[in-house]
Design goal:
single chain
Length: about 190
């Protein structure tokens, strides 16, 4: 009985702390439960998105990571020695949430170009949810910039045109100050 009382006490304290955090940040927190444990049936050529890593990388059922081709979004984390630390670049969180809104928990179709994997072993692909071309939409709405790495050049001219339009119309990260352009232009390829 004493253990039950103690357990309820810890539950109440934890719940109160969580509510304070929600009210303090103004956001409702969601608990991320990987969906690997319950496989989703997909058709050939379809993949189920189990996790959104950041604005341009997802994880699909089976654990494979997919890096979006032709685009780049601001980074949420950076390497410090041999560890990753959370240090979001300007507009990284917005790009992450937009990508999550578009693909998390959905079935996607992957379209590959010449080179199928990067040096980290990730799949390189153009991502589609039904008839929505996710890479294209992220650039068009100003959540991503163009990143063209040979030999994967498919859609690069279209992406560049859409990026210029987003900049001109000050959409997404392009409505911010020059810090975004400075961060993106200073990255090594």
């Amino acid at each position: 009985m004493e253990k039950v009382k103690r357990g309820l006490k810890y539950f109440a304290v934890g719940s109160a702390a969580l509510l304070c955090l929600v009210f303090a940040t103004g956001r409702i927190l969601t608990i991320a439960i990987p969906q690997e444990s319950k496989p989703v049936k997909t058709k050939p050529g379809e993949y189920f998105v189990t996790w959104v890593v950041d604005g341009d990388t997802i994880k699909i059922q089976g654990g494979e990571r997919v890096r979006y081709l032709g685009i780049d979004t601001p980074e949420k984390r950076r390497r410090h020695g041999n560890q990753w630390i959370k240090d979001p670049e300007p507009y990284a969180e917005e790009a992450f949430y937009e990508n999550m809104r578009m693909v998390k928990g959905k079935k996607v179709r992957l379209e590959f170009d010449v080179k199928k994997r990067d040096k980290y072993g990730r799949l390189l692909a153009h991502v589609f949810v039904a008839d929505v071309f996710v890479n294209r939409e992220l650039v068009k709405r100003g959540f991503a910039s163009v990143l063209t790495i040979k030999p994967n050049l498919k859609y690069s001219a279209e992406f560049k045109r859409l990026e210029n339009e987003a900049k001109k119309n000050k959409l997404g990260m392009w409505k911010r100050d020059k810090r975004v352009e400075k961060v993106l232009s200073s990255r090594p390829l």
